[in-house]
Design brief:
Rossmann fold; 7-stranded parallel sheet; single chain; alpha/beta
């Protein structure tokens, strides 16, 4: 993070209550540390209490302020219960970062007998996030201020192959957010979608080919979110994400052909078909032409 952004970031978040889902690892963990270091009171939500306790300890050892709220975001009643616990702990939430998510890398024709992949991905990535927003939104409306940041995916802009379940769930949240944004604009509530490219986190570790393709570090991903917090834009995307969006809008057939080439170049995950995953020189070159895209 450059110094100018860092100064504005600290001014924006200092003393604020900021709720982060998926806060025990990857992007959420990095963002939690970044926010706490800047003086925010971070409210950490994830499934495993023991891991959250460790994150809280690490933040407090550095002088930060954190509280933890274990919750299975697949369970709507658990989300309702944890929301009540949160509002018993703090009077308000200034910023909500919907970061928790599940990703499945599997082609549609390999998912014929796996409808549950689509159900469980939608359950966490869409319904879980919407339920939490619905619980928190009335408090933001009453205060006439707030910011909701949804971590989306570059795949929504580029129509990433093999990620139909994941992209569809993120696209649903994206559409919900666009509708909501206009409704709460008069209440000084900002809604931001961050179209995150591939990030080197535990979530992508099972896909071995991702060792060889360009990806952001968690710190770089956290900086994108920091920029979203400071500027409160409608959307945040990398250059490739913006280009993919424009390409699909004006020349969808070109977008389709490029994605098709990538689909045929890269193998399916060993988890789905049992192949060994290695990249040849053509695959590596293609991945570098589209840095951050999911293949």
């Amino acid at each position: 993070m450059n110094k100018k952004l860092e100064q504005r970031f600290k001014k924006r978040v200092h003393g604020k209550n900021i709720l982060i889902t998926g806060a025990s690892s990857g992007i959420g963990l990095t963002v939690a540390h970044q926010l706490a270091a800047a003086g925010a009171h971070v409210l950490l939500v994830a499934r495993t209490e023991e891991t959250l306790q460790q994150v809280k300890y690490e933040i407090e050892q550095k002088g930060g302020k954190a509280d933890i709220f274990p919750c299975d975001l697949n369970d709507m009643s658990s989300i309702d219960a944890v929301t009540q616990q949160i509002f018993n702990s703090v009077t308000h939430i200034d910023i909500l970062i919907n970061n928790a998510g599940r990703s499945i890398r599997r082609a549609v024709h390999e998912s014929i007998d796996r409808f549950h992949d689509f159900e469980r991905t939608m359950q966490l990535n869409y319904f879980g996030a919407v339920r939490l927003i619905l619980n928190i939104l009335p408090h933001m409306i009453d205060r006439e201020r707030g910011h909701i940041i949804n971590i989306s995916s570059i795949g929504v802009l580029a129509n990433a192959t093999r990620f139909s379940a994941y992209v569809a769930s993120k696209a649903a949240l994206d559409a919900f957010s666009r509708c909501l944004s206009a409704e709460v604009h008069a209440h000084n509530i900002a809604i931001t979608s961050v179209y995150m490219p591939l990030v080197r986190t535990p979530m992508i570790a099972p896909t071995k080919i991702y060792k060889y393709v360009p990806a952001l570090s968690p710190n770089q991903a956290a900086d994108l979110i920091a920029g979203a917090i400071v500027n409160r834009p409608k959307k945040v995307a990398t250059g490739l994400g913006k280009l993919a969006s424009i390409t699909y809008a004006i020349a969808p057939d070109i977008n389709n052909k490029l994605m098709s080439i990538g689909f045929n170049l890269f193998p399916s995950s060993t988890a789905s078909v049992g192949r060994q995953e290695k990249l040849n020189i053509v695959q590596r070159a293609y991945a570098r032409l589209f840095p951050g895209e999911h293949w």
